[in-house]
Design a protein that fits this description.
three-stranded antiparallel sheet; 30% helix; alpha+beta; two-stranded antiparallel ribbon; 88 residues
């Protein structure tokens, strides 16, 4: 099961990195991701809305942390690992 969790974290991190705006635009990002199938790493954009855990929708920014060195938002592995517990 740990292998599946690591694969999920890796896949979701990659999705966030490619979807999250860079720079100052990230401060105002309200885009969301919907987790369609956690075991197979299937995600889709759910537009601009707030987190809806019942429908597996999360704001990108809520899954990130501010990197102290670069001052950019990066995926927060701790939050993603916590989220993975809901699926595995």
């Amino acid at each position: 099961m740990e292998q599946e969790i690591q694969e999920f974290i890796k896949a979701l991190s990659e999705y966030i990195r490619t979807t999250m705006p860079i720079g100052e635009d990230a401060d105002y990002c309200h885009d969301t991701v919907q987790i369609i199938d956690a075991r197979n790493g299937l995600f889709r954009s759910a537009g601009i809305q707030s987190t809806d855990e019942q429908h597996n929708i999360y704001t990108l920014r809520s899954l990130c942390r501010l990197d102290e060195d670069t001052f950019e938002y990066i995926p927060d592995e701790g939050k993603l690992r916590s989220l993975a517990r809901s699926f595995f």
